[in-house]
Amino acid sequence: MNLSRLLLPLMLAVLAGCAGTKSPDSKNLTTNSQGRYIARDTSRTVDLTNPPADAWDRIRRGFAIPNLNTDLSQQWTDYYASHPESVQRMAERAGKYLYFIVDEINRRGLPTELALLPFVESAYNPTALSRAQASGLWQFVPATGQHFNLKQDWWRDERRDPIASTNAALDYLEKLFEMQGDWYLALASYNWGEGSVQRAMAKNEAAGQGTDYLSLNMPDETRNYVPKLQAIKNIIADPQRYAVALPPVGNTPYFVTVQKNSDIDLEIAAKLAEMPLDEFKALNPSFNRPVIRGDHGPTLLLPADRVEIFNANLTNYKGDLSAWKIYHSRRGESYASIAKRFGVTEGRLRDINDIGSRQKSASGQSLLVPGEPGTGGVQLASLAPPVGALDSAPANDKAAAPRGRAAQAPAARAASGRPNVRTHKVRQGDTLFSLAKQYGTSVDALRALNNIKGSALKVGAQLRVPGTNARG
Fold it and tell me: Measuring CA to CA, which of 273, 313, 318, 425 is 20 to 30 A from 381?
């Protein structure tokens, strides 16, 4: 009798424990009094006594979504770890956008795991387009993009704009978290739609089943969605463990914004910034046409170290900034005749204006056509002649030179085979751009000669400076 009294509470406790145990997938998760997951373990192993080393470190410090330690999460972690080259390629693409995204996430006080979501959504490709016509880093479908005021027209698609789409995505994720109460359900709603998640929760509730994330019946894509994010998080948290070499991403802005109020061609804008066209397009992927319309008040994104060069080249530019114009066709006018008038093939005209082969005549529509060739040009700022300091060698140097050498021409000196390099002591206010302009060289040449990767210069440092007018 006494033994049964002792065993009864123990048996009840064991049974209660069994009844309260969720599926094996929910191990290591902690819930609050409302049954929502809370952050107990978020993969953070960082030294908070020191400032973050880079953007990746900032992300690790802001982890706040509880880890989803499930078999599916482990499967995806193993998958990504077995494809380190793919993870590294995605991380390389992310480097252009991470500082801005993490900064905005920190400003809003959101978990920094959200900065890893474009790995899952688009592989951090701003021009990614899904079968469902979802587009951009954050993969907005057209209707959701419109709901969050992302402009989509013939000229541009802001679902591909890094700034506009990031702000819209974070607005949406904040809304979903407020609606659903935990991040797993919010993320599932971002992928599947909040209505679908709420209907699945209501169905489970009516059947007396759990309404938490792991209890819901979801499509395979959504079921794998949070585990994929967890897998990327695991690798970013400890890249060495998974033999992934993350590219350096500093704690300074990669790009800055420049406002334009006049038409400008993508190709000319890239040339003014002295950067490859494909790199310019990677920062400005929202523009659908070869010309950016000034009356749209567009914001151009440029690498931080290209802005001074862009502005200097723009100031010196002569002629039209766009080689395109709008032609208002006459009713019934054929595309072949319009193409001939403007000296372009009909195929090119159709490609530029998204015209199918079945449509034979313009029917009074507005078309983008080549304009008159520009007569102006620009001398690139990084190739501008030196300003004053190196116009001639100092007089005392000439006096010390052997007879006949003082008057040696620059070309002859260069031909002598001696390295034509001098040094410059960095002063307050010096920049790579200003020094390139001063010494008649390029920013890239200064970087290469001094093994500089970024744009920061240390006051008092000695820089090696190339230049045909410099005495070695």
Answer: 425
